[in-house]
Each structure stands twice: as structure tokens, then as C-alpha cells.
Amino acid sequence: MSSDKQEGSLTLKQRFDRWMIKHGRVLVVGIPYFWLFLFFLVPFLIVLKISFSVAEYAQPPYTPLFEWIDEGITVTLNFGNYLFLLSDSLYVTAYLNSIRIAAISTVITLLIGYPMAYGIARAQGSMRSVLLMLVILPFWTSFLIRVYAWIGILDREGLINAFLMWTGIISEPLIMRQTEFAVYVGIVYTYLPFMILPLYSTLEKMDVSLVEAALDLGCKPWQAFAKITLPLSMPGILAGSLLVFIPAVGEFVIPELLGGPNTLMIGRTLWNEFFANRDWPIASSVAIAMLLFLVVPIMWFQHIQTKQEEGQQ
Amino acid sequence: MSSKRSTFLISALVFGFAFLYVPILLVMIYSFNEGKLVTVWAGFSTKWYVSLFSNDGMIDAAWNSLRIGVMSATLALALGTPAGLVMSRFGRFKGRTLFSGMIAAPLVMPEVITGLSLLLLFVTLEQMIGWPAGRGLSTITIAHTTFCAAYVAVVVQSRLSGMDTSVEEAAMDLGAKPAKIFFVITLPMILPALLAGWLLSFTLSLDDLVIASFVAGPGSTTLPMKVFSSVRLGVSPEINALATLIILAVSVMIVIASLMILRSERMRSRASAGADAQH
């Protein structure tokens, strides 16, 4: 009670200030921490939990994991979903396909993006800002619309076929849409800015005099590139590749719109399990299996991010 | 030797930018095509724009998307700014690794996983505490806020890391309270980053199909969901018209925003140059 009397002499604002100085720091950390914890981390634990239950015709459509039986809690872990994923060649094929398609697309994106990033980094003053802006602009326009643009180009009655048939190079339309080729085009096209930007930021910081010194000392240009530029731009190559590879593995829109019915990718399989088959437990175990595979690249990406911050500070 | 190199670089840039822009330009050109087919040019017409604006389903979806976009960009700014501040100014604290992980992971997490996991969270919460009752605009807003906050945090953090801390330190030495330092000094200095973060969140929210499809409920169809269901059936001139409008709106917004950022940066550098001259 005595403390109450002491505090009573303070105005409300003073009390608030005191409280803020004492707890403000906790509050600033706590609110975003709590939000991300609740809406980003906890959901994964629930997915993990549901991946061990059995599908049921009920709302929600899965069996509970914990049950009160004979006044005790029993946990029924059901590994059936995971065994099913392993035994059905559909899922294994979809996983391997996704990894292969994502890896090949990442390499193509790197091959196209590296010279572009290099060219932008070596451009002069205002030209550089304009080129950079031109890379960022498509990133801001709708992803869905950029994928859609390729339907009209690659379709059987699309622009490429119309053009080639008009020039007489081909007489029968080429099948380009609904093939794996179209999926590569789509991924490379939509993810190219993600590759160029981190590459640009490492190439821009690079000291050009190192390359000049190597050339003066008799290195051939390709040797100077392989021995100096390439190793120095490695953080950018890694960051860009991971930014393309990780989301590409789980890509749904591109294989759905540009790929054929045979272009199995894991993101598409998950979507179908969930929306078409309404099998939530299987969809959850597909997600967990995908996550297990992606955990290493994701942690690698985070490691690179943290290292770059520390370099900046 | 170097002219050969620059020829290669210039042709790489020309090819690369053609690859990035030709498809978008084709969509824009064919939105003015009279005919329904993509390949056959049947004359100039704006009839697809008229039919787009008389499509009530499309207008409702666009309205939903705009409301979700504004709400989640604003919430993401409120959550992401302190998160970025914590990451760049608070040094080491307990749980920092987990915190930085929860900021970096949403940037690369495949959308199907985020969407599914959030839906299962909402279903579980509804069973346990009765909230959220059903799914709709609010659940989509929460989902978008979460991944947009991570983007805002990264933008704010990189801005703060590259910033001079001497003014903040001077204010601290003179006895200003942390909150006052933040609102009077730090906030005005990172305003361009906040604007960029808000715009980025807004466009990301406006663009998201996969996560919204998982956590949407009846009556909360967003624009990408509407576009996706019509695009699945093939090319439609109405979507070309919509795409053109979106691209134009985004381009205008980006140009205005970058001019504003450029101006504020120029003013700041001029102000600091003036301060240096006075010494």
C-alpha cells in the first residue's frame, strides 16, 4: 500500500514513462516476436501434428492426435502417411522432378543474370540507376500476369507458332506450352530479378583495381574473371541461387499454368491433395517432407543474410 | 579486348531486358485487339476494357484485394519496423537467432507450405477458442501481414545498418528517451525505407494467389484468385486489359515513389553538405 501512495504523487504520464523505460525494450522485441511466433512458427507445429493423423470424413477432416481413453491421454502417431508417400511412386517422382527442375532453372537464371548484373554494375552513374530500375520494375508487376503473358506466346495458337508458320520455317505448330520447357521459361522469367539484385550488390562493391592489377600482371581476361571476379562474387551467386531455388521447388502457379498434366511438381501435388482430394493429413505430410528437404538451403540462406548484415555494420 | 567485353555485356543486357519486357508489352498490345484470338490482329478496340469494368465479379474481387492490401501493408509496417530496429540496433539478446530465422524464412518459404500451415492454424484456433469464426478477409489479412512484415523488417534493417548512428548517440548522451529518439530522429531518417516497405507489402499482398487461396472463405475471392480461375481456361482479352491497367498503375506508382525517395535523399545530402560547409 505504501508504494501505492508514493506512486500516487506521480501523474499518469510519468508513470507511463517509467513503465516504458523499464519495459519498452521488451515491448519492441515482444510484439513482432509474438506475431511471427504465432503466425509463422506455431503453424508448422500444427502441420507436423496433423501429418501424423488419419483422414476422416468429418469437420475438420482428420483424426485427433491426442485422445482421452480410460482417463489417460494417449497419443496415436500414425506414420502411414509418410510410408504412403514413400511407397507411391507419384510422390517420389514429384519430389525428384521439382528438385531437378528447380536446379536446372537456377543454373539458367544464373547464366542469364550474371552478365546482366555485371553489365549494370559497370555502367555509369544515371544509366546504372535506370537499368537497375528496369530490373526491379517487373518484380513489382503481378507475378500471375507475368506467367500468363507466356501462355499467349507459347500456346499452340500462340505468337511464336504464328510467327514461325507465317515465315514458313515450320508447317506444323510446335508444342511448347504444357511441356517442361515452358516451366523452365516461366521460372527463369519470373525469378530473374531475384538473381540479378544480389549479384549486382556484390559486383558493385567489388574493387575493380584488383582485376586491373591482374590484367597488368599478364593474366588473360578469362583468368582474371575466374580467379578474382568469380570468387569475390560468390556470396551474391549463393544468395541469388537460393532465392531462386527454394521457392522454385515449391512452385505451384508456373507448372499449373505452363506445364503439362505430366509435369509433376511437389507444390502442385500438395495443392491437389488439399483442394481436389481434400486429404489434409497427406497434404501435411507432403509439406513436412518438402520442408525437411528445404531446411538445409533455408538455413544456409539465413546464414548468408546474417553474414552480409555483419559485413555492413 | 575490353571493347569485345563491353560488346558482350551490352548484348547480354539487351537480350536480357528484351526477355523481361517483350512478353509484358505483347500483353499490353493485345489488350487493344478487337478479336478474341491472341495471334490474329483484328483492329484496334477498347471493348475489352468496357467488358472488364462491367464484370461485377472482377470488380468485387479487385475491391477485396485493395482492402486486404491496404490493411496488411499498414499492419506489416507496424510490425516490421520494430522488427528491423531490433535486428540492427538491439545487439545480442536471448532468442535472437530464432527471431532472425523467423524474419529470413518467410522470404523464401514456398507459398504452398505457408498457406497450408496458416489454414491449419486457423482451423485449430477456431476449434479451441472459437476465433477466427470462419475464414475470409481477416484471415487473408493476417496471413499477408505475416510474410509482408518479414519483407518490411529486411528493408528497414538494411536501411538502418547503412545509416550513421552519431545523431542518435548524441541525442542519447543529451538524455533523450529511447522512444523520443526513435520518433524524432530515427523515424524521419528511415522514412524512404518505410515508404518502400509499405509499397512492397501492398503489391505483394495484391499479387498473392496461393496463400490467399488456402486461407480464403466464401465471399472473400481476391483478384488473383479470380484471374487464376479464368486464366486456367486459356488466354482471355479481358485479362489482357486488366493486366495492362495493373502494369500502368504499378509503373506510375514506382516512378512517383522513386522520385520521392530520390528527392528526399538529395535534400538530405544537400543538408549535410551545407552543415559541413558551415564548419
From TrEMBL, chain B:
Keywords: Cell membrane, Membrane, Transmembrane, Transmembrane helix, Transport. InterPro entries: Bact_Polyamine_Transport (IPR051789), MetI-like (IPR000515), MetI-like_sf (IPR035906). Residues 62-257 form the ABC transmembrane type-1 domain. GO terms for biological process: transmembrane transport. GO terms for cellular component: plasma membrane. The chain crosses the membrane at residues 7-32, 66-86, 98-125, 137-156, 181-200, 239-262. It is a multi-pass membrane protein. The keyword RNA-binding does not apply. It is found in: Cell membrane. Pfam families: BPD_transp_1 (PF00528). Belongs to the binding-protein-dependent transport system permease family. CysTW subfamily. This is Spermidine/putrescine ABC transporter permease.
